[in-house]
Structure formats: C-alpha cells, structure tokens
C-alpha cells in the first residue's frame, strides 16, 4: 500500500517493476543511476512486487548504503526471508550500513542463530554498538534510540562545532543530525541546540553560551509511551537518552516516535474491540494468528456471559407469570453496555494522552454517576413513551391497511413502562460507572487500561443489569402482574 | 498534566508558581532572565496554575517572542480567555510574533468579531499571510501548513544557500528550517535537501546538483489524515504543500503531524465507543458538552434496539411453551456483538493505517466469514458442553453442602444444547460479517468508518441474532418442545 504522492497517476510499483526487472537482466550496472532519485520507501515498495528470487540480485546492484536504506523500509516478512537467504557475510555488509538502532531492530526480527552469525561478521565496533542496543527492551527508550548523534564539548566555539557537524555529515552519518548536544568533560549532557540555532549563533560564541540547558531527557528504561508523550508535548524532533549519571548514551528520533504512536494506537483500538493486539497488518497476518487473538477473549467473554443464564433462571418464576418482561431484556442490558462502552472509551483515551491519571478516579466518578443518571432518565423516558404510545394505538385500534399498529402490553402497562424507566436509570448509571472505573482498576493492578474493552464492560454490566431489571419489576409490578 | 522529565522530583509548576508570583509583584523586570532556560511548554503549564488576573501581566513581563511561544502551548480555554481580555492591539502584538500557522490556528479559536479586530491590528504582511491561511479548511494540509520555510533558487551555490539560511535563522524565523527547498524561476518546487545534507554538500556545487528531486508533496486541499500517512510512511520531518502548478506555498512540520495523529486517534476511539468525538480533554470539557455527545448516539442505539422487543414478540408463542429459551437470549446476542466488535475494530484500524482500502472488501469478507464460522463453532461447543454437563450434574444429584449443582433443562436438553450451538455459529458469523463490512459501507457513502462503533454493530446484530436463534429453535425443537 503506497499512498502515492498526488502528482502520480498510478502506483510507482506497477510502473517500474517490469522496467527494472528487464534492466536487472540486461544492464544491472545501470540500476543504481536509474533509481537514484527514488525515495527508499518507494523503492522498497517496488522491491516487494519483485519475484522473490530477483530481490537479492537487485539489492546487490545498488550501492551498499542505498540497499541498506531500502532494506529498512521493506515489510518485515520480506526482509526476514531475504536476510536468511543471504550468507551471513552479505547480510552483515547490508545491515552494517544501517544506523545502529535500525540494525538492532532488524537483528531482533531474525532467528537468534542467524542473528548471531550476522553479528559475528560485523566490524568489532558495530558489533559492540549493536550488542549494547540489543540488551535494551525493544519497547523502551533504550530499544528505540540510535547511538549515532552529534555531541560536542560545551567549550567548543560555534565555528568549530559547525565544522565538526560538517565533517560528520560528509562521513555519511545520518541520524539525529538536526540537533547538536553539548557535554561536559565527563560526557554528561549539558545543553542542546538545533542545527538552525547553531547556524544562527554569533560567530566566536562558545556553545555553552548559546545552547539550551533545560533539556527534556529520558532514561534508557523509560517506556516507549513516555517517550512518545514527551515528544508530543514538547514538539521535539529528537529526545536524548541519558544514563543515571546523566551521560548521553543515545537519541530517539521523531520518525521512530511516530511509529510508536501508531503501534500503540493499533494496540489500543484492537484491545478496545475485545481482542488481543495483532502485530502485523490485518491482511498479511496469518488467518490463524488473528483467529487465535480473537478466540481467547471471545471465549472468556462467553463464559462470563453465561452468568446471564443463571441470573434469568433465578427469575424464571416471575418470567413465567409475566412473559412480557422478556421483551425488554435485550433493550435494557444493551443500554447499560452502550453507556459503559462510551465511558470506557472516554477514559482509556484520556489516560493514553495523560489527561487523566490514577489520582483522578474520584473526579471521573463524580462526573460519570450524574451522567449515567441523566442518560438513563432520558432513555427511560423514551422507553416509557414508547410503551404507553403503542398501548394507546392498540387500544384505539389504529391500523394501516390490514396491519394493526400498537401493541397490547396488558392491564398493567403503565406499571410496566415505569419498570422500564426505573430499570434504565439503574442500568445506565451502573454501566457508566463500571465503564469509567474499570480502566482505573486495571491500571491500578498493572494491566493495560485498554483491556477494558466495550465487550468486557458489556459482559460485566449484563448480569447486574438483569438483576436490576427484575428487582425493579418485583418492586413496581409486585402484587399486580407478579 | 506535565509529564515531568525523569530528573525532576516534583512538578515544575508546583515548584515555581509562588516564586514567580512574588517576583511579578516585586521585580517583574527579572522574570525574563529567571525563566529563560525553561521550555515554553513548561512555562505554559506554570502559567495555567496562576490566578487568572496575573496571567496577562506575567506574559507582558516576558520578551514578546517568548510570550508568544508560551501562548502557543497554553490550554485552548486559558488562551481564549486571555486573548479576549487583552486589547486588540496587545493581542495582535502577541500573535504577530507567532509562526503564521499557529497564528491562524489561534485566531480560529476566537470569536469571529474578536479575531477580526486582532487581524486588523496586524502588520499588512502578517494580515495577508494569516487571512490566506484562514481560508483553508483547518483539517487540510493548507490548514496545517506554515508559510515560513526556506526556499532558494536551484541555481544557487551551496555556500550562498547556507549564507541565506544563516541570515534567515538570525532574523529569528523559526519553522521548517531543517529542510531547504529549491525552486525554479517560476517558484515551482524542484528539489529538497536537509540542512545536514546542505552542510555535507561539496563546496562550489549548485543546489540542483545535490538536492533530491523525488519529492513527496501534497496539495493544500489534502486531508490531514493523508498528510499524516505520508509523513509516517516516508519518515519525513516536514512535507511541502504545492499548488496545482507545483508552486511551493507552504510546509507542514512533523510536530503538527503528531498532533493530527493524536487527535484523529482520540476521535476514532470515542466514535468506536459509540459517541460523537469531543474536542477538549475529558476533565476540562463541560459536563453538558460530553453529555450531549453521548446522548445522541445512545438514543439512536436505544431506538434501534427497540426492534429486539418486536423480534421477541413475534416468538412469544414459542417462548411461552419453552421459557428455557429465554435463558440464553443475552448469551447469544452478546456473542454476536462481541465478534462484531472485534471485526469492526480490526478493520477500522487497518483503514486508518491505509492497510485496507475500499477495494479490499472482498478479501476482508473472505477472511471474516470463515473466522466467524470457526469462532461460532468454538463458542457453540462451549455452550453445548455446559448445558449437557449441567444437566448431567443435575441428573446425578451432585451437591456441595446444601447447594444443588447442575440445572434441569428438561427432557429435550440435548436438542436445546444443539440449538444453542447452531444459533451461535449463525450469530457469530453474522456478527463478524456485519462488523467487518459496516466500515466499508460507511466509507463508501462518505461517512467516517470509525462510526461503525462496537455498540452500533451490536445493535444491528441483536435483532437478527434473535431471529437466527428462534429459527434454529423452531428447526431443532419443533415437534418436541415447540
């Protein structure tokens, strides 16, 4: 799926695959120059459309740095297949040309044995760098960071700093180069300035005079969500990672942060839908993988929902006397589930954005309970009117053509309508409360609040909803229908 | 909610508010230097903790550019109150110091009359720039872009380009400065290179020799989702906006893209929960605002769910004969809703990421129907075993203490269990199909697919689910219980 730039009429891949395959056969030496203007993401899309056997020769026809860029944008599955086909030396040559963080990410995807072989073929420096990165949890700042960044002594002059940035850029180093970090003699982070600010700085100044010293930093163990939240709150393009003694050990760049935000959101939406998160895209994930992620929760919810059968059974006597009560069972429990689903999605999202924290539970509850009461009263009013109106149409004998309008709910229809109203106030309030409090409970006990899915809330609300309904019925219809 | 950097022990705001208020009273001229190292996002958090009356004097004590930076990070509500209190001239002086895109965004928040007065006080150039930006849909590339960017003629030499970037940076221009765009004589976009690449370029080269020419661009009318998707796919830090003749008219920067991604996600999660999206944070949004966004959908769903009452009524005769069927109504319809909720969240997310487009509907359906059949068969098996097992425990007279285990489902309990099994296969398959196809239908007819919320899918599935259940019952229990 390439979202083509709007100036293109058809996907690049369709356009170029046949030409490039022909070129690969007849004049592979021309491939580098013919494709040099393409964005590596586009070239990766084109490669994914190649027959599998042509992929390795094609990448071999590109300059090594370029091939490494393309490799980075390939689909994980294609990349793994490719790297496992190459010799360890060939693979090492490719991944050796990548930035350290991408290199570590890619080795993480491979079989451990294959990864070890590739590691052994890297230069000692690259191997050491990569092994260090591989030690961090891939979902932490350490797992996201690159170790290629620009740091200079804070006593450096602006000119000297610019010259050293220029030298590094010419040496082909790539990442985190829009920001310059200043460090003291012990390598501890002291200041930060953007390349733009470095250019704007007065000649002759020292970096310590012009760099910012209020720096947002993270520890390598910081969760990736925290990195994403800081980047977004402070509008950063990169965030420095420091160790306990504030020594600069890496930098997380904004492109990786965007990937994190997208992944976290995918996870949240899928969990909110009542399933485990799947890592691959929907259409390329295996059928049974997706099925497995759905079956677990679906079965748990099913077993939970079985208690509704027991709840109804307790009231079988009442139901036998007043079968009309059965009609409104789905309506009443669904309303509790729906209001709970609204509440849970509000709170989960507010937690993900850091707008609501554990301490706010009471503020949330004191909004949700009155919300539930109001919404329940509203729905109850609609239900009340509907029952009374249909009864009235029935009694008045309204018809359209041969079709009788209205419904006969019996002698006690006003009491029935009142039962529905009261039950809805109770059920909707209960739903809103459970839906809003469940994310707090889950977070409090160390689970992901997004697991408070709409289906889970609905299941929790259904059993209690039935009890509320039948209790309201016993109260209001007792002595009459019951 | 400031996520404090990990090196801080308590929130900055709590630390500094009393000191700064004291300083404001006693030595306001010292405020600028005392706060100059703080990130404007932090300073904004501190300002939000001030008594309302102190906010304007405090900002007045800061240098104008700095005050403008802080203004940009303030909560929308605080900012609007502040700007509406200032004179138009004061407000114009503040927003005049902002980047054009932020200025336009902020004027959009104000009352139209106030905004017009502020506009009238801007310099003619700033006014023209702002009015142009205000004409774009705020949710389009045009509404997101800034008009401050660096573009140079492609015939410029590397040195001359660097000198002009330096001059612009020294003149205090801020945004989109990490990327240099090259244009031809007609102002049409020709190339792009990062500041890093400009620094790395060989001396004496012309920009046309070193700039990239395969450029990802958008039209000003492009939806913000498209901008976000391109930025994320191509790992961009900025994306140029061009008009129909490819003239460069603006640039969208990655910090605004991250905000878009977060907003879109908030919208999706809230819609997925079955309500309209709210724009403000949950805890600061008005009680009745949130209530209004919930009440509409909740009422629609309630009215939709009323059809379940009619559906059950059609089978009242059967229910009167076999009241045991009532027990499983919630279980069966909830299972359809849950599988539908899973399917809809999978598809909505895949659509948001561009993994699935309209054309893929059949590929999706051909995965979801077998998924539904499999999951339905699984749940049905659990249901079958449960009924048969409880009956067996009842028949065997199992007890724990005084409590009888098991349940008597009557003579036809195997047929009943079979009914549940068959009904679940039908209902879960129907749920998965509706849940996965509804987002396609909505998108096809120009609605947001995220409106295919879990509650909406459940409501659609409930009525049909009941019909499937009672039909299965008629088929399997007909002649026996019915």
CATH architectural type of the largest domain in chain A: Orthogonal Bundle
Number of strands of chain A: 7
CATH topology of the largest domain in chain A: the name is Tetracycline Repressor, domain 2
Radius of gyration of chain A (CA) equals: 31 Å
CATH class wording of the largest domain in chain A: Mainly Alpha
Mean of pLDDT of chain A: 88
Low-confidence stretches of chain A: 1-10
Determine the fraction of residues in helical runs of chain A and give it as a percent range.
Answer: 55-70%
How much strand of chain A? 5-15%
CATH superfamily of the largest domain in chain A: SLC41 divalent cation transporters, integral membrane domain
Number of domains of chain A: 3
Instruction: Kindly report the oligomeric state of this protein.
Output: homodimer
Q: What's the SSE pattern of chain A? A: HHHHHHHHHHHEHEEHHHEEHHHHHEEHH
Structural summary, described in words:
- The structure is a homodimer of 482-residue chains.
- Chain A has 482 residues and is mainly alpha-helical.
- Chain A has three domains: 12-139, MgtE N-terminal fold (Alpha Horseshoe); 150-269, CBS-domain, CATH 3.10.580; 287-477, SLC41 divalent cation transporters, integral membrane domain (Tetracycline Repressor, domain 2), CATH 1.10.357.20.
- Helices cover 63% and strands 6% of the residues of chain A.
- Chain A has 22 helices and seven strands.
- A three-stranded mixed β-sheet of chain A has the order 1-2-3. The first copy, chain A, has a two-stranded antiparallel sheet with strand order 4-5.
- In chain A, strand 2 and strand 3 (189-194) form a beta hairpin.
């Amino acid at each position: 799926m390439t979202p083509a730039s709007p100036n293109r009429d058809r996907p690049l891949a369709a356009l170029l695959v046949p030409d490039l395959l022909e070129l690969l056969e007849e004049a592979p030496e021309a491939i580098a120059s013919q494709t040099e203007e393409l964005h590596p993401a586009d070239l990766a899309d084109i490669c994914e459309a190649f027959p599998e056997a042509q992929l390795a020769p094609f990448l071999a026809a590109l300059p090594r740095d370029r091939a490494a860029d393309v490799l980075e944008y390939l689909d994980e599955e294609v990349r793994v297949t490719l790297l496992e086909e190459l010799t360890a030396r060939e693979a090492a040559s490719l991944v050796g040309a990548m930035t350290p963080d991408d290199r570590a990410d890619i080795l993480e995807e491979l079989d451990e044995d294959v990864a070890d072989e590739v590691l052994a073929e890297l230069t000692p420096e690259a191997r050491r760098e990569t092994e260090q990165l591989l030690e961090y949890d891939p979902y932490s700042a350490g797992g996201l960071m690159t170790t290629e960044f620009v740091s200079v002594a804070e006593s450096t002059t602006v000119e000297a700093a610019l010259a050293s940035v220029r030298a590094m850029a010419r040496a082909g180093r790539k990442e985190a180069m829009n920001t310059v970090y200043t460090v003291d003699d012990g390598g501890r982070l002291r200041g930060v300035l953007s390349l733009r600010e470095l250019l704007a700085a007065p000649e002759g100044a020292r970096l310590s005079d012009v760099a910012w010293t209020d720096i947002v930093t993270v520890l390598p163990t910081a969760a990736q969500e925290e990195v994403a939240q800081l980047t977004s709150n402070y509008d950063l393009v990169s965030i420095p990672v420091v160790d306990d003694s504030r020594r600069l050990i890496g930098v997380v760049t904004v492109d990786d942060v965007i990937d994190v935000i997208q992944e976290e959101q995918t996870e949240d939406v899928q969990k909110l839908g009542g399933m485990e998160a799947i890592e691959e895209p929907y259409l390329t994930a295996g059928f049974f993988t997706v099925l497995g992620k759905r079956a677990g929760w679906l079965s748990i919810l099913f077993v939970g929902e079985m208690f509704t059968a027991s709840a109804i059974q307790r009231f079988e006597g009442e139901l036998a006397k007043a079968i009309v009560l059965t009609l409104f069972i789905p309506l009443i429990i669904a309303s509790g589930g729906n209001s709970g689903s609204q509440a849970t999605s509000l709170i989960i999202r507010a937690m993900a954005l850091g707008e609501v924290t554990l301490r706010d539970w009471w503020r949330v509850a004191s909004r949700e309970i009155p919300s539930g009461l109001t919404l329940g009263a509203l729905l109850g009013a609609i239900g009340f009117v509907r029952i009374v109106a249909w009864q009235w149409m029935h009694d008045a004998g309204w018809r359209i053509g041969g079709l009788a309008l209205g419904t006969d709910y019996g002698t006690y229809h006003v009491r029935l309508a009142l039962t529905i109203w009261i039950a809805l106030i109770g059920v909707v309030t209960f739903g809103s409360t459970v839906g809003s409090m469940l994310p707090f409970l889950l977070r409090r006990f160390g689970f992901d609040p997004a697991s408070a899915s709409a289906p889970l809330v609905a299941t929790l609300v259904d059993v209690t909803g039935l009890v509320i309904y039948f209790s309201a019925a016993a109260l209001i219809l007792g002595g009459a229908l019951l």
